[in-house]
Amino acid sequence: MIPEIETKPLAEQKKYQEGQLPSMLEYVNTHSKFYSDLFKKNNIDTSKIKTLEDLRQIPVTSKDDIQQRNNDFICVPKNKIIDYITTSGTLGDPVLFPMTNKDLDRLAYNECISFQCADSTSDDVFQLMTTLDKRFMAGLAYFLGIRKLGAGLVRVGGGIPELQWDTIKRIHPTACVTVPSFLLKLIEYAEANAIDYKNTSIIKAICIGESLRNQDFTLNTLGQRIQEKWNIKLYSTYASTEMSAAFSDCSAGLGGHHHPELVIVEFLDEENKLVKEGEAGEVTITTLGVEGMPLLRFKTGDLCYHYKEECSCGRKTIRLGPIVGRRKQMIKYKGTTLYPPALYDILNNIEGIKNYVVEVYTNEIGTDEILIRIGCDNISEHFEKDIKDHFRAKLRVAPQIKFEEVETINKIQFPELSRKPTVFFDKR
């Protein structure tokens, strides 16, 4: 079932959001010290902000703002906070996000309609291959959303392929929620242990944390490797703790659908101006319906393209293309501008690479340097040359390569407090 607002023309979606602005702005002005200070400093009269165009009078909010004044964003007393969540801290110290009962209900609604977008119903049984602990929003969100959907679920958590396959054998889930690269580990384990994985109950995977598609929406290397081995339906999602919402693929696989009842979204350039359709812009969100810690014009750091034409699934919402990269993770290497996903796509396509991490640092002459630490069994000068030739063919430049034990790289990817694999380390 598609929410009615998502089947309306974009102009009606805009009108709906503008109807939410007055109460939302009054709420943050009254309860958020950060935003009340911001309005005073910039002489902003929130009662005069009536349209989405007017909203642009408000300066953008950055990750640095939240890290420096985290408590000043919180809008509720402690006795209204039901759950405490933190961000993963990929681009800095983790940030605290308190959730009220209303926020948890909103989170459940978001995930429910996101799963419905990904062709899921109450007849499905989901296997959660993500953690619900470690202050992680995602695992909790999936649990709440599946429960609201009325589907079955089994909470297995991350890793442990043997337990994952035992669960599939015992419970016969129809879908899994996972980081897509973990599907390759499941396939590898199944092949090594004579498990007939191609004939199990799993028919689809809701994929999180890693991109599955190129900018033209064809499957990227990771997506292709999965589908070549295991012909299940793959759905991409894009989400963040800050927005408490998700953009999910539908069956068309042409980008993540926006939920306008939950988030106002803008796509901005480096000068905070709107980019045109066909230009990459930074995803910038204003949350609707958030009680504990609402955000206005928050710049996520993620760059992507957006699309406004109607989708064959019946939704008329804006769609987000695959994330091009994070603005702060841009690399200038030997005259070439790169983002980490371009490196991952090449590494995922080279047979013999078991795992890897990418490190970027400043060299002695003050420019960016890239070191890729690779876990593999075949360590040789010939293999190193082969890897570098792949990079030169695709990107015209080749990074430094260092071979290490697979287990060593695995420990780097999953430090003690890790909630998801980390493959990019910015040491600049």
Which structural traits does this protein have?
single chain; 428 residues; alpha/beta; Rossmann fold; GMP Synthetase, Chain A, domain 3; 2 domains; six-stranded mixed β-sheet; four-stranded antiparallel β-sheet; 32% helix
Shape: globular
Q: Roughly what percent helix? A: 25-40%
Low-confidence stretches: none
Give the overall pLDDT as a whole number.
92
CATH topology-level name of the largest domain: Rossmann fold
Strand element count: 21
Oligomer: single chain
Q: What is the rounded distance between the termini?
A: 47 Å
Radius of gyration: 22 Å
Strand content: 15-25%
CATH architecture of the largest domain: 3-Layer(aba) Sandwich
CATH level 1 name of the largest domain: Alpha Beta
Number of helices: 13
Structural class computed from helices and strand pairing: alpha/beta
Number of domains: 2
Characterize the main sheet: 6 strands, mixed
Say which CATH homologous superfamily of the largest domain is assigned.
Answer: ANL, N-terminal domain
Strand order of the largest sheet: 4-3-5-6-7-8
Explain this structure:
The protein has 428 residues and is α/β, with parallel strands linked by helices. The chain folds into two domains: 1-324, 3-Layer(aba) Sandwich (Rossmann fold); 330-426, 2-Layer Sandwich (GMP Synthetase, Chain A, domain 3). It has 13 helices and 21 strands. Helix 10 (221-229) links the parallel strand 6 and strand 7. Helix 9 (180-192) packs parallel to helix 10 (221-229) and helix 11 (340-347) packs across helix 12 (381-395). The longest helix is centred in the first third of the chain and has 22 residues, at 10-31. The protein is globular.
